[in-house]
Amino acid sequence: MKKQIIPFLALLVGGIALSACYGDKSSLDTGKLPEVVIDVAGTPYADGVIRVGYMEELALAPKVTKAGKEDHPDLSYRWTLNEIPDKVSSKVISEERDLDYVVQRAIMSNPYTLWLTVTDNATTMEYLYAWEMYVESSFGEGILVAYTRDGTTSDFALIMDSHVSADYQKETFIRDGLYEAANGVPVPALIKNACYTADAARWGIYQNIIRATTTEGILIVNCIDYSRMDDEMVYVPDNFVPDKFVKMRQASMLNAGPAGIYVMGQIDKKPTMPLLVLDNGGVADIKLSVDSHEQGDSPAAVWYHNGKFYRYNSPFSSPAIAAFDNTSITAAFDPTNLPGQECRAAGLSTDRTHTLLLKEIASGNHALYTFTREVNNYPDPTTPSVARAKIDIPASLNALLDQAVSIFFISDQAVMYVATTNAITPVIFAGGVVNAGTPYAIPAGETLVMAKLFQQGVYVDNRDVFEDSLEPRDPLPLNNRAVLFATSSGAYDSDVYVVPMVTNLASSGTLDTDPAKALKFPVEGKVLDIVMQGK
After folding, report:
1. What's the predicted TM-score (pTM) here?
2. Which of 149, 298, 417, 470 lies at a CB distance of 3.0 to 4.6 Å from 525, suitable for a disulfide?
């Protein structure tokens, strides 16, 4: 497609066409304007419409000729783009012949207008071509990395790849500086923890949201462009020390240190009142075992604090949070009387069983404590969740556990991963028999800084869809079948890995040592947290 638009100046002086005269060579001689042509045939946007993702690179290289000659020395170029759709005012974004531009206009339903102005400096004539440009979100499912490059401020980077992002078949996409691009400045604190949740409580509305804790408070961003969307708390307690958000069904649970435990619904933009404040220093030391699928008919969260185990069902339960009682106690342990312990890790194991790893402070020995799932045989009486089993960890594994950087569980197997700075070791506890599996060695020259189970943001631990109101779809092969971890090879040089488990389930969590199976993504900066963002 070829297109020439006669300049506005030419129209003002009488609708001069391409045959207009341009300078008397003599009193009798006249000449035609040399033909300048902007030809977009064969370009991706030959129809004059551009659809591009926010923060994606837009490349345009139309063929421009004067008198049939490309790259004519008389020609200069100017690309302009309006800052608000339907507004005349625009800003120059390039003066190169070919456009190579990272789109940083806000995501809008109406199109922007992109202009290419070609000036013939020999005649001062201008030739224009315009495109309608729709800016859409380019951020979907993937690995979201919180990082810092100066030890004071922080930001987010997104990794999208066909192995970790559903319905994504393009080349690997890694984009950093997302928060600063959307808000003008980086996060003015260090991100401590990031948690994905989906705002899908209202039918027909779906938003990917990241809730994060920082060294200065909390932060909530909309993953459409990572713009900040949280509201200031009306009253911030002096002892409000946000530690960690944990995903629940239709909510997130926030451990706010001595200020207590808060639960925020999907559409909440700030914490309100704590559900519970515990004694002896609050809840700064707790590790939450959270089932993001259950709410109301089984414990949505279980934790240990000050000698007792506690449970949270839902905001509709009465009481919403309570200590386990000692009725129906098995011979395993009394959940109401277990003093002198430190909780090292909490999560779900086989059949989404709440499983907590405790260390006895006096002896240094470790043990796993599990709870049955509540059974609701409506309209028959409910069988409540109770203490299920205590599994002692051999003392020979104490040293390994004490060196752990991260400890986490496979949600449908009796396997606990213990990640140290140089290895990730599966610990199998099926049938109450504990054995350490084959360690996975961290690459030489790198130090592991954190690790967790690879779980897609919209899927829960039993591989079901996270939200009932989302369109069901199959999980990726790696979901709950790989480990996600970050390493450091310098102060601000990091890598993020996804390493699959050996496919044979009898391998009990053994990670595949074939280097070709590992996914490796570079990150410029010190990794502060990694989380799987939903679609």
Report:
1. 0.81
2. 149
